[in-house]
Amino acid sequence: MTRTTTLALGSLFVGLAVLGIKTLAWKMTGSVALLSDALESIVNVATAAAALLAVIYANRPADANHPYGHHKAELFSAVLEGVMIVAAALAILHAAWGAFATPRVIEAPLAGLMVNGAASLLNAIWCWLLITEGRRLRSPALEADGKHLRTDVVSSIGVAFGVAIAVITDLPWLDPLMAVLVALNILWAGWGVMRQSVGGLMDESLPEDMLDEIRTTIATEATGAYQAHDLRTRQAGSAIFIEFHLVVPGNSTVTAAHEVCDRVEAALETLLPGSIITIHVEPEDKAKRSGIPVY
Fold first, then answer.
1. Residue 74: which pLDDT band, with cuts at 50, 70 and 90?
2. Strands (E), the chain
3. pLDDT band at 199 (very low <50, low <70, confident <90, very high)
4. Range of the domain at 216
5. Which parts of the chain fold into alpha helices (H)?
6. Same-domain check for residues 178 and 141
7. Count of the separate structural domains present in the chain
8. Where would I find the Cation efflux protein cytoplasmic domain in this sequence (predicted)?
9. Please, are residues 150 and 35 in contact by the beta-carbon 8 Å criterion?
10. Residue 131, domain CATH
């Protein structure tokens, strides 16, 4: 089992545990704000299951029907997560509307908030691990799951504050108001998750800082060539694709040109482990003004 799969499976178990704890907090208090927190945890469980399936599928090797691999499966999972976040927000808004119409007295607020706080602490630890490891492993599914949990942690802090104020001031309408704010917060988070994932599905280029590192690596390692041009990059899940044209002297042997390509590929793979690199070798008359000069 890969590290990515292990973390995705762990997210499922953590999500189930947090859901149980937050549901208990809601039952203890009757707070619609704590109910909204529990509803978001249902989404956490569903998205963790989707991320687990996506990670397992994305790790399958390339085959005849998918010669570039199955990496984009993680991006579909992240899009689905964004959609489910929006669905949870709508469910929370519905529950809040009912609470505005019929205000409820919050029972055992201190005990309920302590129970809910324990769930939030567990979520905080796990979201930090998912985001850190998701970026290191270049896993969109894990990183999206971690960012969703981070939103959940922020929401839980706001919920706790709102419930405490509602009890102290004896203003029960503050409870559903906090639920509405939670819904708006996770709607914004859902949009961010979908935006990033759709960008991956549309084969957006790598970030400019990463492109600068790639250009510098090519310029310093392609000794023996004149320049590189038409650099194109994209990321599909954990896989990074790099393509460019390398201009070499017209009288270079195939062996000499191949040695330059091998050296550049090795340096790029060190910079971005697991990257898939395609180099098209051209003679010197194909050089372009906008190319990457070789030092």
1. low
2. 227-236, 239-248, 276-283, 292-293
3. low
4. 208-293
5. 3-29, 32-58, 73-101, 109-136, 140-169, 174-201, 208-221, 254-271
6. yes
7. 2
8. 206-284
9. no
10. 1.20.1510.10
